[in-house]
Amino acid sequence: MTANLKADIAAPPKAHKSRVKKELPYYLMASPGVIWLILFSVVPMGGVLMAFQDYIPTKGVLGSPWIGWENFTYLFTMRESMRVIENTVIIAGAKIILNLLVPLAFAILLNEITHVRFKSVVQTVVYLPHFLSWVILASIVINIFGYDGIVNKFFGFFGREPQLFMSEPGMFRQMLVATDVWKEFGYNAVIFLAALAGINPTLYEAAKIDGAGRWRSIWHVTLPGLTATIVLLAALALGNVLNAGFDQVFNLYNPMVYSTGDVIDTWVYRMGLFKLQYSLATTAGLFKSVISFALISVSYLLARRFADYTIF
Amino acid sequence: MKRKASISSNVFNIVNYTIMIILALSCIYPLWYTFCLSVSDKAATGAGLVTIWPIGWNLRSYTEILKDMAFFNSFWISVQRVVLGSAFTLVVSIMLGYALSRDRASFRARNLLMWLLVFCMLFNGGTIPWYTTMRNYGMVDSIWGLVLCGSLPVFNVILMMNFFRNLPKEIEEAAVIDGAGPWRTLVSIVVPCSKPVIATIALFVSVGYWNEFFQGLVLSTTEKYYPLQTYIKQLVVNIPQGVSLSREELIRLTQLSNRGLNASKVFITMIPMLVIYPFLQRYFIAGIMLGSVKE
Fold this sequence. Notes:
A: 73% helix, B: MetI-like fold
């Protein structure tokens, strides 16, 4: 700033040129990233026009006939797509809530453990699943909950018939939510544990002197200390309402559970890439993108308003 | 009174430790189970007898893998993808992050670019427009497709930018006085001062590339070009898409697959993550905190 000012005073006629010259390195630094972004994020956005067309692959976006909102009307009157949207909201909603509450409970309980070594071992172990892909974890989950997996063996002791957990429409959503919470709770707890470490220990001492037991000090000291974090995470999670997790669903589901387990992303994938219904799949994808965009924007505004959170 | 309190406190402790042990075991068991399957006898795995201990210990699955060129090929594609992708992403993000960390007076396009980045982070055209564009670019069945098609990871650039902004101004000013231009300042002052954040992001990015599934699935059409995750997926798929099966057929299908061999491949795919994550968890924690709480 001061450098610019000096340059302006020293050589007024050349000021503009020297400023461009000064900024040039920054333009050069920014250009690879910006070009990458434009080619691979911005250009594909143009393809959403397919949602308003009867897209014919050989004719391309420019040559295909325009049909206005017809794809949208069709999408929202189709039983199948409405079911898919419903599944998505139910699965994603349950994940949002439990991915907040379970890590919270876990962090509070782990924080009560005084044995330092035990605590750090548990912490290290529980976020292992976060680093493994759903391809890997699904192959394991399918084995464990499979027909002759350990879960059915365990229930077998009590005389229960083996169940096909992953092929049972009435159970599939619960399986999705449970395995997702299991995969992520350790990782999601990290932020709570960091917030817990920031609570002033004298507050606990004061609570103890006032005669508060363990539960009361959790209720009156720990939870209030976490409120800001809880509010922030809840607000930011809002953008995921239509995001049920493609990788997980795709790797765990099968045609027998489409009725309860098929979500927008998997449906778009099958519609677009297998049935080649480009326009319809684009329409569903655009619907998801627009709603998600609106929700994320709102969630950032909320986070900014209530938790002083700014990303930049 | 006091005694009563200590009893309830003991009960709490016992319950709490038990819960923690169960949770920890639940996170280890899947790995252990996979390992057991991979070193057990084929007959035992096929019949579903292996649960918590290997039966008929042998390494036949692993010697069989040595002959499996498709597996190695996919492994190699994934390694290339991680190395190329992480290096490319890091260099590009550092440069962009640094340019964006300047204030508007010294880089006038800054705010405009910032809005572009945030918009691209929050909005996307969806799967199909993305796929048709990538196909037009010739990104199908190419290593560059696997590296580039995810586009710029905007969030990482923002993390980087925030970190650069919070570096003490004095260090950079000293470099400028010594006659260093922006490139020189970036390479010899800013990057060395930012090793922790660069290491964190390098890890996020390489784990991301290793585990990435969707793009690999969509952009590779033949086994020759499969990255490892896609390769593993097609091993595990034993239920044909779009076909309804009876309960009996489904059970038969799961019993037919070569579980031991598949488990050994899954186990090998997990190893890179198992090896790096405990050492680098402190970086990950730093990274999560970087993204979540900003003063």
